[in-house]
């Protein structure tokens, strides 16, 4: 008989299936896996648990994405939590409890995904077909890839930094717990990326092109995430190819106006995290709606626009004239997340507009002005729905100016969606201009492995530079 047993990987395992009512394990306890995968319905429930984990505040419920915005130059962070102020001010310590929780919760989702991946094929249920088993495994592998992708971006140097491919990153845990205590070492950035690619390739091969519910994994979403990975690696031909496949798939289309926020249920969205008033990632410390909404609207008001970001928008840009609200203190907030009372705003984790911008950037980075016409055609629908004039080829003197314009458009379009930090680091740019601790390559642009994990498992040492 197979058992799921308590095992120490890097943290105390506190969740079994990622559901809101979590099971807490004692070291001597075990849970019968045969029960968890007794039939197809139970196996589906285990997969739902992984999706539920993705809603968690510290996974895709806003915290990592918020950090990625305010470590860079999009947000004037005014929050009161000392641990978040520490990160914002680049005074981060390795015992930062917000980082501890983020690290633990993301590995819990990886743990849950591994459980599904390892056990779904063993389900003995004539109503649960091999095809459905494979699809469930593919969905879990997509979710595991997404979590590892987000984590490696936070806890390891970017791939294109000096020594980046071989830099120590994270423990690579792909097997379910079997009762053996394993003190994992940190795998390299390249090794983590290789696993992400393998998981996404499996998802691409075994998932439908689009899921009827855009909050569920699909082949299109896996291609889009893989395109983002190649963009971050500077592998522009691969990024352009995959982004083009998503755009041309026929299932996604750039919205004609900005009314698609904040719902996953529209053709603009490739993949998103669905929230409801009774099922979302909000905790006592915040969430998408809370962090990005002013106190007067019921939010925390921690994350208004920075002056730098505001100055970058054209005065007539609808993304700042119609997708914002002004607090009595004069601070400007996005309304991409606009329900701080009930926290029902979805997180649009991958949008087809991102694929337009990715393909445009990658084409110009590869072919220069030889791809200007296609690149401009990809960006113009995004500009015109924002109320801006369409670009023409004559607007750009050279490839460098066009490339810079596309990257700036990416900043304006994807603001507050968690992209800004890596969009700067992947091109070797400072996270904030004129602030030495935020310079490219500075130690604390990368988060530390939590000290408690190193204390438990010395194989994780040494920590990242500066910690």
From TrEMBL:
Pfam families: SusD-like_3, SusD_RagB. The keyword Protein biosynthesis does not apply. Residues 337-431 form the RagB/SusD domain. Keywords: Cell outer membrane, Membrane, Signal. SUPFAM superfamilies: TPR-like. One of its GO terms (cellular component) is cell outer membrane. It is found in: Cell outer membrane. InterPro entries: SusD-like_N, SusD_RagB_dom, TPR-like_helical_dom_sf. The keyword Membrane applies. Residues 24-231 form the SusD-like N-terminal domain. Gene3D superfamilies: 1.25.40.390. Belongs to the SusD family. This is RagB/SusD family nutrient uptake outer membrane protein. It comes from Marivirga arenosa.
